[in-house]
Write a structure and sequence with these properties.
mainly alpha; single chain
Length: 102
Amino acid sequence: MNKRLEHIGETLRKRLPYIILILVVLWLAFGDRDSFFYQMKISGEIKALEKENAALKEKIKKTREQLQKMDDPEYLEKFAREELLLHKKNEDIFIIDSVENE
C-alpha cells in the first residue's frame, strides 16, 4: 500500500506542472471577463458599432446637405413632390410602379 501511494505521489509530481498549465490556459480562455473569447466578442461588437457610427455620420452629412438645399424653392418643391407625394390643387399624380420580369 505504501509503495502504491509513493508511485501515485511521484506520478503526480511529474505531471503537476502540466496540469497547472492546462488549468491556467483553460482559465484564461473561458474563466473570467478578461478571457480570450470574451475579448474577441467585445472586439466584434466594437467593429460593428464603428461601422454603424460611420454609416450614421454619412447619413448626417447627406441630411445636412439636403437641409442646405431646402433654401431653394425649386428644390423644396421637387422634394415635396418626390418624397412626400404632395401636389398642387387641381393636379393629379399618377404613381407608376415598374415591375421587372424574372
